[in-house]
Amino acid sequence: MVEQQEASEDAVMTRIGQAIMLLHGGDREEARNRFGALWSELGADGDALHRCTLAHYMADTQDDPGDELAWDLRALTAAEGLRTAEEPGEGDGPGERRGGARGPEHRDTPAVRAFYPSLHLNLAADYLKLQRPDSARIHLQRARAAAESLADDGYGGGVRAAIDRLELRMREQ
Fold it and tell me: pLDDT tens-digit profile of 69-123?
């Protein structure tokens, strides 16, 4: 049963990946349609990593900055939902049980944690487009703080460079 569940979850990520490829290939409308269909299938109780990934990329298919912000907020909510789900709430601090013992980490936590810098960076850019610089600054600070946990690889370097570019753009305004 577990193998069947893992295979179906892999199928969802494969479908998300296919829509991402369409988006990166320039077919925003078809990517948006596929993301929309998948979002409907996943529902509000769907896997947090799937919802986070899908919403993160669905935001990039939007023409309206307000719609883009709404999808980026959905992505962040899904990521935070995973963090909340792993926290028993009975302990002395976040993610801890009584006596300070940490609960078991959800299998998708590292993947979602790696999304946080990009999630906050996208929110900062959204708020800047919507002429809300105070909100943009808050999320840019959160992006920079979260980026400290990224590896020194192509992804981590790319996210850090994007944070630097947005920060420079905000200073120039």
Answer: 999 999 999 999 876 555 544 333 333 333 444 444 556 667 777 889 999 999 9
Beta bridge partners of 164: none
Any idea what the Cα angle at residue 146 is, between residues 48 and 130, rounded to 5°? 80
Q: With contact defined as beta carbons under 8 Å apart, do 170 and 136 qualify?
A: yes
Q: Looking at this protein, which amino acid is placed at residue 33?
A: N
pTM reported for the whole predicted model = 0.81
Question: How is residue 72 written in tokens?
Answer: 């980026």
Q: Which has the closest alpha carbon to 111: 73, 71, 151, 143?
A: 151
Q: How crowded is residue 75: how many other Cβ atoms within 10 Å of its Cβ? A: 24
Q: Smallest Cα–Cα separation from 113: which of 146, 144, 70, 162? A: 146
If we measure between CA atoms, which residue out of 147, 140, 128, 139 comes closest to residue 167?
Answer: 140
User: Which are the contacts of 26, defined by CB distance < 8 A and separation ≥ 6?
Assistant: none
Exposed/middle/buried for residue 36 (C-beta within 10 Å: 0-12, 13-18, 19+):
middle
Mean pLDDT rounded to a whole number for the chain: 85
Q: Quick count: other Cβ atoms within 10 Å of Cβ 105? A: 11
